[in-house]
Amino acid sequence: MRIGIAFDLKSDFAPTAGGPEDRLEEYDSEETVAAIAQALAALGHQPVRLGGGRRFVEAVLRAAPELVFNIAEGHGTRSREAHVPAVCEMLGIPVTHSDPLTLALSLDKAMAKRVAAAQGVPTPRYSVVEDEAALDAIDLRFPVVAKPLAEGSSMGVRLHSRAATPEALRALVRPLLQGYAQPVLVEEFCAGPEFTVGVLGTGRDARPIGVMEIVPRRTDPEHFLYSLEVKRNYAEEVEYHVPPRRPEAVVRGVAEVALAAHRALGCRDVCRVDVRMDAHGVPMFLELNPLPGINPVTGDIVILATRSGLPYQDLIGAIVREALARHGRAAP
């Protein structure tokens, strides 16, 4: 099968002066695209690199593939992750991962929480701050965490992004509003252990790949944030426990919350869900990534899948099979 890979590389974007230094954090590396292509080829497919943005549109208009394997993050708006699947829907090209609605909804953290909470998925109390004046009306229990409303890959989340007082929160929010040019999500901090869950499938057929606990090496777990600095230096900063060294009932509860969030937001084929326990031991939905990073070495879902007995090539193959099954086609 001829499978086109839709992607955006960090190198596709020219450096600009000013702005946050992590502004390209979500975009992929050549290593990731090469690994996907190699896995598809090993599975008997013909991988074709399509790129993203205008290049993607021009490429599929010239010669549409039989399936698009989508990891493109898009650019420019809070709906940017929906760009590629929207083009595929318009042109009638099958595509992996979630549809435009889910991708746009999930990137906006508050929207995702509203929909998930409406389906009974527990999530920390939160507020959306559009300017500094809105901080005066916040009714949340401190400590809280502040992060850009519509970014991924821990963009804007630093080691110091936890605020214990209104004054500290104001000092966090001001540079976020200025640097990321978007509202800020402020949510009550969960002091319990942190987990990430990989999910395969769609709707009732969705199931967890595995659950991974993220355990800090250098920080008190009650103050730990899975921040940008930690992710960039994960080998020194954290340990990944797959499965978590927790009672079976605890792990099952985490997986159930993740699966409920996946279904509530209409995710397809694959996603990764971040869950953290509150101070009372209740697993809480934090956010969800329907385009999880699949770098063969550093991707969280790759690490947890591999340690759960699903090697990289098999993970890529499973995503393809899930997408083809949705379109009524069997993988060759």
Structural summary, described in words:
- By secondary structure, this protein is an alpha+beta fold.
- The protein has three domains: 2-96, Rossmann fold (3-Layer(aba) Sandwich); 125-188, ATP-grasp fold, A domain (Dna Ligase, domain 1, 2-Layer Sandwich), CATH 3.30.1490.20; 194-326, D-amino Acid Aminotransferase, Chain A, domain 1.
- It has helices at 30-42, 53-62, 83-91, 100-107, 109-118, 166-180, 228-232, 234-237, 248-264, 300-307, 312-326, and strands spanning 2-6, 46-51, 67-70, 126-129, 144-148, 162-163, 184-188, 194-200, 207-216, 238-241, 270-277, 283-289.
- The protein has a five-stranded antiparallel sheet with strand order 10-9-8-11-12, with helices on both faces.
- A hairpin with a 5-residue loop joins strand 11 and strand 12.
- Helix 1 packs across helix 11 (312-326).
- The longest helix is centred in the last third of the chain and has 17 residues, at 248-264.
- The mean pLDDT is 95.
User: Any idea what the shape is?
Assistant: globular
- Kindly estimate the percentage of residues that lie in beta strands according to DSSP: 15-25%
Percentage of residues in helical conformation: 25-40%
What is the residue-mean pLDDT, rounded to a whole number? Answer: 95
SS field, number of helical segments:
11
Number of strands: 12
How many domains? The number is 3
As residue ranges, the low-confidence spans are none
CATH topology of the largest domain: D-amino Acid Aminotransferase, Chain A, domain 1
Q: In the CATH hierarchy, what is the class of the largest domain?
A: Alpha Beta
- Order of secondary-structure elements: EHEHEHHHEEEHEEEHHEHEEHH
CATH architecture of the largest domain: 2-Layer Sandwich
Q: Could you give the order of strands across the largest sheet?
A: 10-9-8-11-12
Structural class: alpha+beta
Largest sheet report: 5 strands, antiparallel
Question: Cα-atom Rg, whole angstroms?
Answer: 19 Å
N- to C-terminal distance = 7 Å
Query: Would you identify the CATH H-level superfamily of the largest domain?
Result: ATP-grasp fold, B domain
